[in-house]
User: Which sequence fits this backbone?
């Protein structure tokens, strides 16, 4: 499975220039059709079983967030496919769908809508979510008054109020405090016992070792190592310590 | 289970596009709730709320009505209802076209965070504009009663007319939304075109004034869209080809929009 991004520069975003280029056989406004293609993910093949907790490890720009987005169904692969035999719930950004001027409680219903949960159904879960967040009376205040950590607690509580079948999370989650992370891990351990799948990207090796059983080390879109979590973390540490040339964008044509 | 790699081929693009359109329709509770929220947010803090547009339309109708009735040497009692309905429907049509350019651009954040059928964003836009249209229509019965419009059974045809306008609004927002996501200079081009269209389409002037050129103006799909709503409300028959033009526009536009959607649906997330 591969994902290729076309980088559209200013001129290639112009319809007028694109039409001009076609009509003058590319002599005029050549830059209109010049695009750089970047292969964000290259030749990925893996199978994740029920009950697996997969860690995504790699330097910045390796393709971790792109892979999470592909799993969440946001990007379609340019080559290959992702087949999920269950619903994928993704928390990639704490604040998506939140209305900053609405209260925490109102946002629970709102965020639930983006997760395809009807307000009626969400109201039944609202108390349980409120309790998990530990936000107390802050839930009646507008969300724009919240700190980043509080938003993460809210987003996580909402996204996991119904046990997800496949949960995909990006690294921001690890910005939560230790008490919250403990609760979060406990909740996720319950899901996984119920044979859910977890895919998590993070830079915190301690957290990943605690939460995950398998790992995949990505660098510049390719798989460098894949296997048990301890082995993959070791491979990553070796990679950081060894001297290597600076990263180039994996340009294609 | 999650399988990633070179697997059995995915269903055809057309099937996936059709599934997207159906999935969007299925989630009607979601786009309706989001559209209502859009309107609440837009008018939060304003006293009149969405009726602000109704008031500004009323003012425009009042001023233009009196002035242009004089310019066209028409009776105010006949011209004012003609102008009111024309302006109200044009506002719907032109806003749908303008906002349609931002169908996907406006929800960039959501497209990059949550998987949703793309058609859902179009339905939300259309429903939101239908709600605004409903507020604007409030002024029409008032004008019709004041000037004693001769209504007859034909008024019922307004309902299928609105339905057809709504269907057209959907394919317009999908098509323009996609093209604008890829080519960022499209929204200003569309706005320039709409400014010209406002004068070239018989919205505030009657096509009868054109004499020999009348059929040209009547073949304009924008005119057809307005005519099928306006004529029944004025108690007259719509122009000969209005319904035909509108139905053809719906079919051709709908097919073109769907074809483009099938081909490029998977690229939209990369374009916005």
Assistant:
């Amino acid at each position: 499975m591969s994902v290729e991004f076309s980088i559209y520069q200013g001129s290639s975003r112009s319809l007028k220039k694109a039409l001009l280029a076609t009509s003058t056989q590319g002599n005029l406004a050549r830059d209109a059709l010049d695009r750089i293609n970047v292969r964000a993910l290259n030749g990925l093949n893996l199978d994740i079983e029920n009950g697996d907790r997969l860690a995504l490890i790699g330097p910045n720009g390796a393709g971790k967030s792109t892979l999470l987005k592909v799993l969440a169904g946001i990007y379609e692969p340019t080559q290959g496919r992702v087949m999920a035999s269950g619903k994928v719930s993704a928390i990639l950004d704490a604040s998506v769908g939140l209305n900053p001027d609405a209260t925490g409680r109102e946002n629970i219903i709102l965020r639930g809508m983006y997760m395809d949960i009807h307000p009626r159904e969400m109201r039944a879960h609202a108390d349980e979510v409120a309790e998990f967040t530990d936000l107390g009376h802050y839930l009646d205040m507008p969300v724009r008054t919240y700190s980043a950590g509080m938003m993460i607690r809210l987003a996580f509580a909402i996204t996991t109020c119904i046990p997800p079948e496949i949960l995909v999370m990006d690294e921001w989650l690890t910005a939560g405090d230790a008490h919250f992370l403990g609760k979060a891990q406990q909740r996720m351990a319950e899901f996984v016992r119920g044979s859910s799948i977890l895919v998590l990207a993070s830079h915190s090796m301690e957290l990943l070792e605690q939460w995950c059983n398998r790992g995949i080390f990505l660098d510049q879109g390719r798989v460098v190592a894949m296997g048990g979590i301890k082995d993959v973390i070791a491979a990553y540490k070796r990679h950081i310590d060894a001297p290597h040339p600076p990263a180039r964008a994996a340009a294609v044509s | 289970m999650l399988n990633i790699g070179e697997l059995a081929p995915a269903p055809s693009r057309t099937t996936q596009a059709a599934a997207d359109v159906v999935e969007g329709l299925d989630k009607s509770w979601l786009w309706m709730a989001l559209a209502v929220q859009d309107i609440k947010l837009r008018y939060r803090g304003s006293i009149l709320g969405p009726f602000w547009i109704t008031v500004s339309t009323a003012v425009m109708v009042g001023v233009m009505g009196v002035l242009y009735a004089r310019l066209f040497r028409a009776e105010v009692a006949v011209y004012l209802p003609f102008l009111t309905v024309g302006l109200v429907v044009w506002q719907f049509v032109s806003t749908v076209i303008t906002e349609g350019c931002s169908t996907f651009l406006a929800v960039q954040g959501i497209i990059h965070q949550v998987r949703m059928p793309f058609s859902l964003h179009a339905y939300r836009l259309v429903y939101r504009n239908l709600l605004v249209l409903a507020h604007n229509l409030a002024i029409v019965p008032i004008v019709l009663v004041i000037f004693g419009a001769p209504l007859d059974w034909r008024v019922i045809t307004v309902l299928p007319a609105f339905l057809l306008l709504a269907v057209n609004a959907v394919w317009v927002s999908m098509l323009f939304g996609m093209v604008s996501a890829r080519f960022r200079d499209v929204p200003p081009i569309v706005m320039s075109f709409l400014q010209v269209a406002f004068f070239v389409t018989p919205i505030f002037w009657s096509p009868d004034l054109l004499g020999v050129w009348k059929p040209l103006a009547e073949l304009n799909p924008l005119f057809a869209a307005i005519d099928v709503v306006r004529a029944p409300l004025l108690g007259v028959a719509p122009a000969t080809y209005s319904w035909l033009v509108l139905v053809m526009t719906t079919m051709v536009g709908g097919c073109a929009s769907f074809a483009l959607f099938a081909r490029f649906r998977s690229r939209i997330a990369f374009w916005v």
Notes: The first helix of chain A runs from residue 15 to 23. The first strand of chain A starts at residue 3 and ends at 7. Chain A touches chain B through 49 residues (CB under 8 Å).
